[in-house]
């Protein structure tokens, strides 16, 4: 079975003390996850080593970066490369979050470069896609998401796509308290899987973990994660509250 994943996206929140406290609270409440389940903590760069240290020796728990540079090392003030993440043994990086696309103008081409650099470094991308409200209202969300995926990822080999992680996050549901219904999530996740199946075949498409993101909380996680093509979630706001996120971790499909 493909991996079931609860991924926390702390975004640009918490000071160091608050980050340490949150991580400690989660680890106090953490119940051992079954094989095939993972929890991933995408934290601000300055907290990566602290979080990684606290997670060491814990089964199925990993640190992740929220972004990486679109270039290799060099004279790029303020950037962090995929190679640097690899050098710190960080296994995952979020690429293409809608906030990066919107506020930092990252387009499908930039995201292709980031994906390639992450894969070359041996850091696994958590690649985000999702439509804004006006696209959903126009009913063209399937085509929109398909284009995001094909333009950034379809140059990759079947081997590279095997076991890949995608996060579908409808922008209108992020941080708004408005969740897509579990049926809306399932419908899009099935579409995403079929897009990969058409290019790479059913076996490769079946190996991809597709996470849902957008106002996931402990109270709605089991319903959303229970859908056949939803393999967990990428969680913002609720990942900042230990009891919430532990509830979400425990809601992954068995
Ligand atoms: P949210 O954010 O859970 O606060 O809606 C999700 C995300 O942006 O990854």
What would a concise description of this structure say?
The protein is an alpha/beta fold and 254 residues long.
Walk me through this protein's architecture:
- By secondary structure, this protein is α/β, with parallel strands linked by helices.
- The chain has a single domain, classed as Alpha-Beta Barrel (TIM Barrel), CATH 3.20.20.
- Helices cover 44% and strands 16% of the residues.
- It contains twelve helices and eight strands.
- The chain has helices at residues 16-29, 48-55, 82-87, 98-103, 108-121, 133-138, 141-153, 158-161, 182-200, 202-207, 218-225, 242-249, and strands at residues 4-9, 37-42, 61-65, 92-95, 124-129, 165-168, 209-213, 232-235.
- The protein has an eight-stranded parallel barrel, surrounded by six helices.
- The N and C termini lie close together (10 Å).
- The structure holds 2-phosphoglycolic acid.
- 2-phosphoglycolic acid binds at residues 9, 169, 174-175, 213-216, 234-238.
Q: Which class best fits the helix and strand makeup?
A: alpha/beta
For the biggest sheet, the summary is: 8 strands, parallel, barrel
Instruction: Give the CATH architecture.
Output: Alpha-Beta Barrel
Number of helices: 12
Strand order of the largest sheet: 1-2-3-4-5-6-7-8
Overall CATH class: Alpha Beta
Q: Please provide the ordered H/E string of secondary-structure elements.
A: EHEHEHEHHEHHHEHHEHEH
